[in-house]
Here is the input.
Amino acid sequence: MSVFYETKEDLINTTVGFFEEGLKNNEFCIWAISDPVTQKDAENYLRHAVPRFDENLAAGQIEIVGGYDWYLTGDQVDLECIVNGWSEKLGSAMANGWEGMRASGNAFWAGTKHWNEFCGYEHELDRFIAGRKMIVLCTYPAQASTAIDVLDVARVHQFSMARRNGEWEFLETPELKQAKREIQKLNFALDILSKPSLGHRSLTPRERMVLAQIVRGASSKEAARTLGIGPRTIEFHRAHIMQKLGAKNTVDLVRRVLGEVSDAA
Here is the structure.
């Protein structure tokens, strides 16, 4: 998960809330801090938000480490070393009986020569945490990030948001927008299967399934793979469906069906 922040207050409130929830859930938490947040800032804000923070700290449930020391070896980025560090922390957390692990680091590398290297690191981290009891919050200063940087980050992370003066905005990548369009098509297709109109009642169950694939925008080959039949069989059903519903062509067929679904909604 990634968050672009505008002010120091946005950064602190976001990260503190993230760790507050983790402590409640009996998770191990580690915060790799860097400018503009200091060790004193992190402790004071967490202490204010979490009533038992000092107990959590004493129990080793939360650690606050320097981000530069955690992410850089000298002035170099060692991707394997960073990922191994998270792996060791996660293994220790699970061995100590915590339910999982939450980690957060602030992208001090935004706008620096290390940007491309850290993009590679985030791809590696995304692969590492898959299937593991670990949640990572990566924060990025909006003012130091270009439009290309924002797209790079959004493509890597499962969720990307921006926090500006306390207000949240959800960031959508082109891939996510395309996925939403596909979901809308699929919903229309499901409507066809679940809400038969008078015209559709003349269709056989197999024809209705083929019709759903047509409306979804699937090609004959794609529909055939989905339904486990041959492409020529799909074309055979398509011709019968168009004849039964009085459609002149596929475009007319889809227009008629979507119009009836909208009317029935």
In short: The chain is about 55% helix and 15% strand.
